[in-house]
Give the backbone structure.
Amino acid sequence: MADTSISIRNISPYSFLSAGIVLVFLVPINIAMDTKMLLLERFFPGGGWVEIAGLTVYAILLSRAFLKTDSISKVRSRYWRLFSFVFFLQLLLGISVSSIFLMTGKLHLPVPALIIGGSIYRNEVSIMLFIFSGTLVLTGPGWCSHLCYFGAMDDFFSKRKKGSVTDRPISYVWKYLAIALTVAAAFLLRAFGTGSGIPLWIAAGFGVFGIAVSVFLSRNRGQMVHCTAYCPIGGVTTLLGKLYPFRFRIDRTTCTDCGRCGKSCRYGALSKAHITSGTAGWNCTLCGDCISVCNEGAIAMKPLFSKRDVWPVYAALIIGLHAVFLGLARI
């Protein structure tokens, strides 16, 4: 019989990189933090170490599967939705069962815009702003297509569209307007000394309307309209993500202009003009969907001044951070 077991020898170095990321982040947190950040540690002594071990194995197996898949979009959607499900499930349990499921026991609305708006309004650097900033440094615009708890919903609805996805890019004006309005509203609410009631209702309304954007616009267009045009965090991510030293490049010597990559891009970052230029547009979030649909192997992730394909390293990094986020997926 064939040996189907997984041994150390048939696990790639990239999977070990994912595992290392889990250990580098979660081990110090479990040792040094006074607050028990890992959920199992709150239920029994040593539970945090059990959780870390489980997440490490999970990262190895997921990274191995992700790097071998010929359908990056399908696998990415699955682990992204798993994270979002765990995040909101623990929020629900924290509200209805016990505050033990909440990160600090203090609730705030799970609306991504509050990562910036809330910090400006309270005039403080929140934990979420710190996490978001660190993720932006490590993964560039990858937050928006792999790690955002809200974005998985937009991904789900955008993929409900039947038939081909439009390759028309989404106007940049909307994302910059969303950023400007969020910052201005937060400053004005703080300047006028409004209590928590009005900002809370504004944030809740913004979140509900964002869901409507996903349900109707993203579903109808087949693109991530919420993430690329409505969410201010999406705008900040793709704007500052241009400082990230890695890009998807299209080898024009092997590209046949079939257009498959453009029709698969839910972010509208691969219009015909982008494909002709050989690089993805500003809306690119490094999701990787285009890689697995290119029959010519013409698309690769490359540093600015190198021809080396670094996608496996980036994918391993993303999977490692996904596992870390899964362990800390609480409000």
Q: What stands out?
A: Residues 72-96 form the longest helix (25 residues). The mean pLDDT is 88. The two ends are 48 Å apart (CA to CA). Strands lie at 246-250, 299-303.
